[in-house]
Amino acid sequence: MKKVLLLLVAVSFSFVSCDKNDDNQVVVETSPIHGKWEVKSFNAEATVNGTPIPDEDLDFNHVVGTVFEFKAGNTIAITTFDDFEEKWTTDTGTYVYYPSQNKVDCTMTDVEDGSKYTQTMNIKLLNATNYNFNVTEEEKDGGDVYKLSMDINCEKVK
User: For the whole model, what pTM was predicted?
Assistant: First the structure.
């Protein structure tokens, strides 16, 4: 589950590339994204080849409680429950916040193979107390197409 969440979010990241249009996307120290955000609720939809996977076949037991901490200097810490180790663990990475595009790109390192992967958080709401976003992941395996979309609702941790 941790890998799925990190894969979504948190949580297939590749290096975040920059082009000349990114020069004006500077994160200021008072950015509204800064701080700790705890997942309070979520909605998930998973499909295989367009056919929905029943909720009882999915394991999202530890999504609520996950904490995303966006720090100055464009670093992020994601604390999730690791089902294998049966404890809360924190992974770190970097992020780029694009306020004009309502998105955040997070780049993390896969703990299994060391590769970097990037996940986009499409912002639905961001204010002083709430951060709600969508993450969508699609993966092809042989002839099958797996898609997972999550709307995640967070509250600011005081």
Answer: 0.77
